Amino acid sequence: MEHGKSDPRKDSTRAATVAVLDGVLGDGAMLAQMTGEEGPLAALSGPERARAQRLALAVLRSVEPIDRMLGQFMRKAPPLTTLNILRLAAVELAGGAAPHGVVNACVGLARAGKKTQHQAGLINAVLRQVAAGPLPGPVQKMPRWLRQPLVHAWGREAVAAIEAVQAAPPPVDLTLRAGFAAPEGLALPTGSLRLAEAGQVSALPGYAEGGWWVQDAAAALAVPLLGDVAGLRVLDLCAAPGGKTLQLAAAGAKVVALDISEARLARLRENLARTGLVAQVVVADGLEWAPDAPFDAILLDAPCSATGTIRRHPDLPFVKDGSEVAGLVDLQARLLDRALGWLKPGGRLVYVTCSLLPEEGEGQLVSALARHPGLRLRQPDLAGIEPGWVTAEGGLRLRPDYWADRGGMDGFFMVCLEVAGA
Ligand SMILES: C[S@@+](CC[C@H](N)C(=O)[O-])C[C@H]1O[C@@H](n2cnc3c(N)ncnc32)[C@H](O)[C@@H]1O
What we know:
It is a single chain. This protein is of the alpha/beta class. It folds into 2 domains: 120 residues, NusB-like (N-utilizing Substance Protein B Homolog, Chain A), CATH 1.10.940.10; 209 residues, Rossmann fold (3-Layer(aba) Sandwich), CATH 3.40.50.150. Helices cover 39% and strands 14% of the residues. The protein contains 15 helices and 12 strands. A hairpin with a 5-residue loop joins strand 2 and strand 3. It binds S-adenosylmethionine. The site of S-adenosylmethionine (SAM) has 17 residues, from helix 11. InterPro entries: MeTrfase_RsmB-F_NOP2_cat, MeTrfase_RsmB-F_NOP2_dom, NusB-like_sf, NusB_RsmB_TIM44, RCMT, RsmB/NOL1/NOP2-like_CS, SAM-dependent_MTases_sf. This is Methyltransferase domain-containing protein. Belongs to the class I-like SAM-binding methyltransferase superfamily. RsmB/NOP family. It comes from Fuscibacter oryzae.
């Protein structure tokens, strides 16, 4: 391509990325909604769509430091779409893209839009002052509604360490099945494999045969926490898209996988088909459904604020305000109470949430033990976990800043409970 001329495909990718950012940061839409079939990425090819998603994620992980840097060159913040063009340019420049090309493309993008054409001069003037190289200064902070309880629970230093991990794209972890081919990667102490380079996972050895699946290393610990499930009748309550269903089935359990969402269960069915693993799939509301016969074990991966997965979903701090948390805490407790009643005497239940908020984890454990006097707690005893991850009550608290030098992990709380025997 001629030097300085823009590439129309890259330009449409940038335009779509800005539209995604406008949706998330302007309209409060979730990123998944903006990048879905109906959203602004629909007309892009697979690789373009992947690039647009990568760029949007990079902006969302660093809106605060980007705005601080851009603010040096503007007297006041410009309208949202103009600001999003500048933010996109900032992450491209920070990622090492050629400044001349980025500036030209972003000025062109502004000129092409009715809302932004009069801002093309500003965009040009600002971007010419942006230095190449990584974004300076402190990383993005979590919003107050989330940060405050976390500082209270673990202190400022831990929260800053979590934020540092959230600023970077997460590594890709695989859960491996014995006897299948696996790609190159770092063997983590808990048994997951961390890929050296993500790329297109479906092209990696073992994918087509269903020899592994993508699952964060922390998420992969919930099923082992249930103990040996071979031959047991196990309910995976809130199962979709099914990472834990696959683990249970691969461990030899007779699995009933239940979820309220038909769309999410479609992904679970695809995962079962690819791996050749078997589970009985049930579409139902766990608050209304009841089993015909009790279970030996139950995994309850309850709906939650998902605040432990902000590095994968950096839109969350911009579209949520914490107002859903009380309702989720109530739903979690109701699902837990129902599920405990579906266990055989002596049966086990693992309660899990991918939340950083103690009220969705440690707090739920304390109140469940108070509501169910016969309930016993099984101490976590898993290969590779560190003593500091086990809470005073005997739950497992996993934080994004654990293994920070290896890329961190998602945030989870999980605990194994046992009902009284016969
Ligand atoms: C954290 S996700 C589960 C992730 C899944 N266990 C995995 O490992 O792939 C929570 C799930 O709870 C489901 N859910 C929410 N409310 C529910 C309800 N009342 N009954 C059953 N499932 C529900 C959601 O559809 C969602 O798929």
